[in-house]
Amino acid sequence: MSDAEKDVEKKDVEKAAKDVEKKDVEEGAQKGVEEGAEKDVEKAEGAAEGAGGAGSAADGAGPAKGQDAPGPAGPDGDASPAPDAKPLGVLAAAIAAAPPPWWHWRSLRRLTRGHRRRAVAAALAGALLGGTVVAWQAEAGPFERERACWGALNEDDVADLFHGKRDIEYSQLDIGYDRISSDGPSGRCELRSPRGHRVRAQLHRLDTRFGGARDVWADEYLSARMTPLGGGLLGMVSDTRAWLAVPEGCIGRASERDGPLVVDMEAGWTVYDDEVDPDERARLARAVVKLVNHYMDDQGCDSELTDPTDRLAAPARFSDEKRDAVCGIKGLRLPGSDESSRYDRPLVSRSGGPVRTCDRDVMFGHPRLRLMTVENPRLADLFHGLSFEGARRITAVGDTKDATRGRGFLREDMALYQASCQTGDVTFLIRSDDGDRAADIRRLMPRYVAAEADRIGCGPLRLRLPA
Amino acid sequence: MTGERPVGSSGGAPGDAPEDISVGSGADRPRGADAQRLARVRRFVRTRRGGVATGLVVALLAGGLGTWATDTWPFDGRDQYCWGAWEQDSGPGILGDEGFDGDDGRSRTSTGDAPTPGAPRGECRLTVSSSHTYGDGDTERQHTTVRVRYGPAPEPAAKRVAWLGGYLADRAMPLPGGLPGAADGHHGILVLPERCDTRDGRPTAVTLDAHEEVDADDRVPESPDLGGSQAVAELLVAAANKGMKAVGCADGEPLRVRSAVPELPERAETFSRGPVCRIPGLDVSADLTKETAMRLVYQVGAVDQDLQSCSARIGRSLRLGEREDQPLFDAVMVRQPRLTALLDGATGTRAPAKGWRGTGVFGSDQRLVRAGCAGRPTAFLLLGTPTGATSDYFATFTNAVARRLGCAPVAPATDAEGSRR
Fold this sequence. Notes:
The complex is a heterodimer of chains A (467) and B (421).
Chain A: H1 2-20, H2 23-38, H3 45-56, H4 63-68, H5 89-97, H6 105-112, H7 116-137, H8 148-151, H9 155-161, E1 169-176, E2 186-192, E3 198-205, H10 214-221, E4 227-228, E5 235-237, E6 241-245, H11 248-251, E7 261-266, H12 278-298, E8 346-348, E9 355-363, E10 366-374, H13 377-380, E11 393-396, E12 406-410, E13 414-421, E14 424-432, H14 438-455, E15 463-464
Antiparallel strand pairs in A: 1-2, 2-3, 3-7, 4-5, 5-6, 6-7, 8-9, 9-10, 10-14, 11-12, 11-15, 12-13, 13-14
Chain B: H1 4-8, H2 17-24, H3 34-46, H4 48-69, E1 80-81, E2 86-87, E3 104-113, E4 122-133, E5 139-152, H5 157-168, E6 173-174, E7 181-183, E8 187-191, E9 204-212, H6 228-247, H7 290-294, E10 296-303, E11 307-314, E12 326-334, H8 337-341, E13 359-362, E14 366-373, E15 376-384, H9 393-405, H10 416-420
Antiparallel strand pairs in B: 1-2, 3-4, 4-5, 5-9, 6-7, 7-8, 8-9, 10-11, 11-12, 12-15, 13-14, 14-15
Helix pairs in contact in B: 3-4
């Protein structure tokens, strides 16, 4: 075995010699090794260092130099390990505190020579410790921590959503496909606190088909209380609702007329329509980004979305509107709006988002009257099917038999027009809770669309309403 | 991850040496000396040096296990390409197993020189090839080339316009996270920060072009698959970081693809009845024969505040044996500040023609104008056929986009259609 050892040493030295490319170095080093092996621990230090210097080929230092310069000075300052914040950092710090030359492999070898049991024990301890640390780091095996909502949220994330409370239970439907996967992937998750607070999350493709849930979804998730998530993301957030589309760079563009794949979250209701709690909003924003990041990670996408909370704009507040500027749009007048109760004041969403919504008289998330421009073509697809409905068609000035600016309809409770703009389809709609405001809708629609089309760069757009 | 630091910090010493020695040592010694030796070791371990040494053995083992378990250095042995900018399996599809179409004869190599402080131009060519033999004996070969270039924009103005337009047109989308550049599935451009500008003030850019070699029996040329726009963005950024480091204009923080590409371009429109690219008044089919008009294809690229593009072409007719589309024009609006900086000095000092706002140059097959638009210098460029028989495509495009952005017309109103809308 001691021959074998020498072979190992020789190999190392030869390797080093190759680097240095000097024959005399090889001889000298070998000599140094042999000498060092025979001597006592303390006395051999210099020789060991010399051999080691060549063995590691740190900087091509010859063994002769090493032999001449014994002592505690290390081969090079750059070899001393830096302290580390991780668990092993403790050891690393201890190592750094020791006089440098001791760590050399020669002394290590001497250290364990003839103590097979101890060496094996050390190796075993190392292996066990290593395995444990890895398991602990990877949160696997006995260190596995429960992660809620498809494995996306750890205990801290959940506690963040529930004001630091850690007694939260959850149930979920795993992310999966329906049998013919026509609806895209979907999954649900619900977090509950014993005090009755609930947060639901859902991954689904927005339904663009007839009879889909688009109206309810649009009412709640495109409301004026929502602030855009910004940063190029298609998503919005308030203190009770959040949604975010999975970036197309990860999952590819949805096929034509499919809605975007989104994660949305709901966290109950509030009666304070214009007061959005920024802390609650930040919590939901962080959570929805984590859910989407986790889904993207599952899909093999490396790039993570960053925490959006710093770039969120201030939430919208009720605005005092002038009589000739309904929803802040100059020249838009609402007939008979003299009775101006507090609840009739409009809430207009901040600019820069995928939609501009003007809600008034909101009851449990549903506005009595809404004027909305869906600027983002992917969201506007939600209304694509709807735009063909209704018998009383809206047309635009300049439409020809071959080419039209878009299509839409007028109803007692709703007017909708989807225009083809440079950016894609844009939907303009005005809707009310009931048919009582048919005259208002009819009166508002052409001017609203003209003004909004100009604002978003789709003008001029003059509509012709059916008689 | 945990173990990386202790192992790495052993500096020049080979990471495997301590393990080899400690495991293989001390065997086959006379038994009689064991007790004495044990006592000596115990004594040794109790000394500070000994304790630390024992700790180190444990730490090295743990670190080794950790690095092995997390598949990091020194157990990975991954190949590197293109000045060490790209690494095997580092994310982009072309660098992973999915980069190979076939199972046989797989090879991935790169050649080229990195930029240096003295000559800040670099080029590298990554070649990925494989082959696949079908059951009927047919063999399909894959030969994908990815060419990445680091350097300043071409000096001649006309060349520069064509160069930039090529990267911004068609299906290119802006790079995510505010990086100044654009990419599609097989080519892209990234403009480096000001500190990397040449001495005469031209920005340095990294460009990437991928190419799939055409098999003789292919009916239509295949486009290379690098793993999507996201992969192209990551390849560009990696090459830019390496190049900047090599040249010495890297700052502490390397560039990063901070988020996924949010949106991809829509499908090319092959059956259109309205104006091309939904741009009011951009009527191309009126200038074509009825037969050709049927084959008109347009691609709406990016449409946002910083970039807009519209590409029109005549679709290839396999019946007539055409293998490629015949391009009509690529129209681009760009006002991302670093991208427009690439056109500095290329726009001349005068209006390109009578009635135009701003400065620009009109050539036979390319047009360029730059004017202030809603507070920012905005460049409009067009490659290919600038005018049809009945209308001026470039003027129509320019004014329609200017209107969308909310600024005054740049081109003189050319026809009734253009001015009305």
